[in-house]
Write a structure and sequence with these properties.
Length: 347
């Protein structure tokens, strides 16, 4: 009987009686055997006894890096999917043409007021033609090297390029002066009348609600004051009457607001203007026919001609008190500029 070899003389086949196929070997042993025979196999993934074969993601054959990680095939597929989704959302591939989703819009308007913000910024309130009242941040406007300069000061008619913000504040990107209205800054009477117009519009206008008629009324009032009228306060009073009419609060001046009787002798803001004695309540005060006629004349005269309307000082004082009280009652706000306008009229 032939003896089987031992030690180094033993053949490799004899060490594995299960055959050349290597059934029962470990994965590490099969990998070593493949390295000796010169054939290259896929590297193994951690925790997986065999190499990943036939696995496909999104129709692309996965590639395995030497350290067992997936190659960049899926990354390339993801980039193609993102580009396709962007094209489906915007209607055009990335980098071609203007994207309508960018919140940038161009407007023209009159600057109503400005408030300091931080160390170098300002919050500017502008009455625009197409977007109503807009509150926007002008960054760096208070610096000496600011590109805005004095373009966003009150009374200025400007053309703006604005970025729409996520909240209530937008951001001014560019500003160009259309008309500076310099005459309003050099005279107390013109300044008081102009400030009354700006404050009244700021109280009435709503943010981002288009009101072209209100914008045109304000722009016409600024132009009337810039022409240096003889009586700037009369222009401001005429502006207030037209603003009340535009807001739906036009006062009754020639007939009773309750019964329509002519020649009213009382005035009550809560009842809508002039009233007769029979319909007057406890809050109604006396009102002369001259003062009511003067207010009616101002209401029916254009802003460019209102500065030429003349009246006695007593009539002016009485009509001014009636109009200012009626305006603050229906706007439900106190106006700080009205006392300044009254002082300018007294001088």
């Amino acid at each position: 009987m032939a003896r089987r070899p031992h030690g180094r003389q033993r053949d490799r086949r004899d060490r594995h009686p299960r055959g050349r196929a290597g059934r029962g070997r470990t994965a590490l042993g099969r990998e070593r055997q493949a390295g000796r025979s010169g054939t290259r196999r896929r590297p193994l993934l951690r925790g997986c006894p065999v190499a990943v074969r036939g696995h496909r993601a999104d129709g692309v054959q996965d590639r395995l890096a030497p350290d067992g990680r997936l190659a960049s095939a899926i990354g390339r597929r993801t980039r193609r999917i993102s580009t396709t989704s962007q094209r489906s959302l915007t209607g055009r591939p990335e980098g071609h043409g203007y994207d309508s989703g960018v919140p940038l819009y161009k407007e023209q308007g009159v600057v109503l007021r400005s408030v300091k913000l931080g160390e170098a910024d300002k919050i500017v309130t502008v009455m625009t033609q197409g977007s109503g009242k807009v509150r926007a941040v002008a960054k760096g406007i208070r610096k000496t090297t600011s590109r805005f300069g004095a373009r966003l000061e009150p009374f200025t008619h400007v053309s703006l390029m604005v970025y729409r913000g996520r909240g209530s504040l937008d951001t001014v990107s560019q500003a160009e002066i259309v008309s500076p209205f310099r005459a309003l800054r050099g005279d107390l009477g013109l300044f008081a009348a102009g400030e009354t117009m700006l404050e009244a519009v700021d109280k009435v206008a709503e943010e981002h609600e288009r009101n072209v008629r209100l914008f045109m009324l304000l722009l016409t009032g600024m132009r009337a004051l810039d022409a240096r009228p003889a009586d700037p306060a009369a222009v401001a009073e005429s502006f207030l009457l037209k603003l009340l009419s535009l807001s739906g609060f036009h006062p009754a001046l020639t007939t009773c607001a309750v019964c329509g009787a002519p020649a009213p002798e009382r005035f009550a803001s809560g009842l809508g203007g002039a009233v007769c004695r029979a319909d007057a309540d406890l809050d109604a005060g006396p009102a002369s026919l001259e003062a009511l006629d003067f207010l009616a004349t101002l209401g029916g005269t254009g802003l460019l001609e209102a500065g030429d309307v003349r009246a006695d000082n007593e009539v002016r004082r009485e009509s001014r008190a009636l109009l200012f009280g009626f305006t603050e009652y229906h706007l439900e706000r106190r106006m700080k500029s009205l006392p300044i306008l009254a002082r300018s009229l007294a001088t």
